[in-house]
């Protein structure tokens, strides 16, 4: 008998009385990560390309045994060579982000990795002169924070122009206010006054 929505329900449906096992109560067994890793690697003569999921930057991702996402190239390195030293990252020598071939990877510091890459940090690190052509040497280089350098000559010129600009602005403002008040007129004084 089916409940039609009017009055009390006389018969309980059989499915409501049966005990349903929760999916969370079952022990979920996952295939070990190393067994899931190799089917997602396309081996070739050069790079071994990761065909599984990737992050937004193109690096391969794999769900590890501890249920955390790990980079596929780091997992590959650890399978072959063991753990990566503390404070080191893996640099792709081939410059292919989804390559997992251990011989194409090298542990380096984060700084070395950035300087080897293609981008503004590596471009600026190889510069020997500032934008105005002054040499970056020990005497002419000011380092405020590590990785940020300035040309001392350009810095001095900038500070001079800034102070001069402020002085000129203050002088011009004072002269204008005096003119408005009628205290003085704004007539330019000749640079070389005529001699009597």
Can you put this structure into words, describing what you see?
The structure is a single chain. The chain has helices at residues 14-17, 33-37, 72-81, 110-116, 120-125, 152-181; strands spanning 41-42, 49-50, 61-63, 69-71, 89-92, 105-108, 141-145, 148-151. The mean pLDDT is 80. The longest helix has 30 residues, at 152-181. The chain is built from 6 helices and 8 strands, in the order H-H-E-E-E-E-H-E-E-H-H-E-E-H.
Give the overall shape: elongated
Taken as a percent bin, the fraction of beta residues is 5-15%
> How is the biggest beta sheet arranged?
2 strands, antiparallel
Within the CATH hierarchy, at the fold level, what is the topology of the largest domain? Homing Intron 3 (I-Ppo) Encoded Endonuclease, Chain A
Give the ordered list of helices and strands. Answer: HHEEEEHEEHHEEH
Q: Concise description?
A:
The protein is of the alpha+beta class and 196 residues long. It has helices at residues 14-17, 33-37, 72-81, 110-116, 120-125, 152-181; strands at 41-42, 49-50, 61-63, 69-71, 89-92, 105-108, 141-145, 148-151.
